[in-house]
Request: fold
Amino acid sequence: MQHSGRNATIIIVIGNTLLFAIKITAGIMSNSLAVISDALNSITDILSSIIIFFAVRISSKQADEGHPFGHHRAEPIAGLVVAIFAGILGFEILHTSLFNLFKPHEYKFSYYAIAVLLISIGTKFFMSGYLKGIGRKINSPALLASAIDSRNDVYVSAAALVGIVSGFYGYPNVDNIAAALISFWIVYMGYKIGIKNIDYLMGKQPELNIMEEIKRKATTVSGVVGVHDVRAHYVGNYIHVEIHISLDKYLTLVQAHEIGKNVQREVESIESIHKAFVHIDPI
Reply:
């Protein structure tokens, strides 16, 4: 496992555990459903962080006899599990908030709860930027999904802050409404993360700019007359490419083979391209 990826996963496990501890305490002290919902959201963050830790570790393992193209699908699987956890939690919070919407609710003013939410907002903002940078550096969809989740937690804590302050000033239903909004946001982001990682697992074609770069790299190789039938798909978070190149039919087998290897090297030099398969067509 890459050192930076390991450090990132350890940091998010510790950070989310500490945030859960202070948020659940603040929620109990203030009797705020929005704050408690935010704390429960941290539980999914902890579980997700642990899953991501093992996923990054497995994904970084070298190819072996049973997995000749590596273990890259481990991270999208982890991202999908994160999405499922988010969906379950979101629906549970929505059910609780709607059930309590018309019930009498007593608040206990707590500067501690407000301070905790402000700390959560600042911490999650930092974690989002940190995880995004590491995720892009090592091409980790699991860490990028966690970065998006951390960014969303900023909005979740902000909504909880609005709800608890409104409750303190005599508008108790705002807290329940804030909890309901938090649940919708959690479900929505779980859906987006899930769809993205399902695409990785289902072998979706990469973005158009990557497909164009593959063609451009191949055509710049000396001896290549034309490029056609370019196909690519995700294998986990990395891409496999199949490309056909047209060469002069009078080239020797050795010359044609060398050009094909040059095309392979050029295409595989593109970030996120793991393997390129080159088919040679004589013209």
